[in-house]
Design goal:
Length: about 350
Amino acid sequence: MASLKMIGKPKFILCNLSDVFLLMLVEAFPQTLYGMFKGLYHGKKCHVPDIATVLNRAWSAGVDRIIVTGGSLEESREALAIAETDGRLFCTVGVHPTRCNEFEETGDPEKHYQALFSLAKEGMQKGKVVAIGECGLDYDRLQFCPVDIQKKYFEKQFELAYATKLPMFLHMRAAAEDFCEIVERNKNRFPGGVAHSFTGSALDRDKLLSFDKMYLGVNGCSLKTAENLDVMKGIPIERMMIETDSPYCDIKNTHAGIKFVKSTWPSKKKEKYDQESLVKGRNEPCLVRQVLEVVAGYKGLGDINQVSSTLYHNTCRHSQKMTFKEEIQELVFFPQDLDSAADALLSGHHETD
């Protein structure tokens, strides 16, 4: 893995901002996520819509690209529409484990799969769809979808990855054994992926890292406790991506990782909204910088720009394996558009081999 020397502020690809745009983890009421960025909290209007302000703050903080993740067929359509509004926005196509009932609720699971496949192809042609997902297993919320349905349609979505040759944006919650078993059966059917928002044990971490195509995604929820930090420390920086999962999963003052945070923004309560300040208690993409600071600080990595560079390029390129006669390149989200300096470094490495 070549890395790019950074000049000035660190540079990021935020691996998911779907919740800013309605599109992720609160399965029963996803509109509440979007509502926060329309100024709505529990049905009460507290401030003006501020998605544009939130995005501008992200770009100013060094976020370079954002992947809007889809959690259902309809949300994947919305994700693509949103991604087309800005050259720095990209998206995924897939069905979250807690939404997998939708395959059978349509009455024709194969037709539903084909609709996902068609949408993925359309988005790829537009240069916007960069992964299949969010898909996986979530055994913490079986009230939304039972185990057998989750497993069936998690495995089905490897067909999408195989057909499109896209990497996977993955979700694993309290389901490591079944998750790894399904990945093992399908490990030759996808070119790479990230298990995002990782909060598992050291054993879970090591199981995932045993798949050489797998990255682990870290956010504030990955950095809550001393045990979380120790587990995170055991993730090689070359196998890590960082994210926010906003508007949730921020790094709170009670979290073990807070002592490594250096970057702060002014914040005010939602009732006293000021567009120059963050909303207190609402996570934002700009705060991905804090995740970087905790990762670098707890790992004892002094050159934060170098850490940022490595994490950034992890999101572009999975790995580069060299042999005497051939180069095998395994790719993640933006293989077609690495920075020119990184390409030069890779070219130089190839020539020396």
